[in-house]
Amino acid sequence: MNDDYPLPPSDSSLSSPPPPSGPHPCALCCLIFSLFAISVLVPIGMLFSSDPVYVMNPEEGLTRKEAGANAYGAAGCYVVTAGISAFYYFRDRKVGREEEY
């Protein structure tokens, strides 16, 4: 057997790292994307709801008012997602601070 390449130690120091304490990055990512989507969908809903002449009908069988209502509904779904993400982000952030002391 060749001793040029020793085997790594078999202790638990090579195991996977412990789970992170504090806010989870996925919650922050979802919160940022949700806030961006809300900031885009609300003006689109306002644009379609105001029934401007320079905006064509979005698709056959769908009026501009209905398209505005759909944009508001999608923004509402993102508000719920942002709320849940903010809850998990700030809850985990608080738990992470309590563990430090």
Question: What this model shows, in words?
Answer:
With 101 residues, the protein is an all-alpha fold. Helix content is 61%, strand content 0%. It is built from two helices and no strands. α1 runs antiparallel to α2. The longest helix has 37 residues, at 64-100.
Query: End-to-end distance, in Å?
Result: 50 Å
Portion of residues in helices? 55-70%
The tally of helices reads: 2
Q: Which sheet architecture does the biggest sheet show? A: none
H and E string: HH
- Give the mean pLDDT: 80
Radius of gyration: 25 Å
The total of beta strands comes to 0
* Stretches with pLDDT under 50, minimum 5 residues: none
Globular, elongated, flat, extended or rod-shaped: what is the shape?
elongated
Question: Hey, roughly how much beta strand do the residues contain?
Answer: under 5%
User: What structural class should be given to the helix and strand makeup?
Assistant: mainly alpha
Which assembly state applies to the chains in this document?
A: single chain
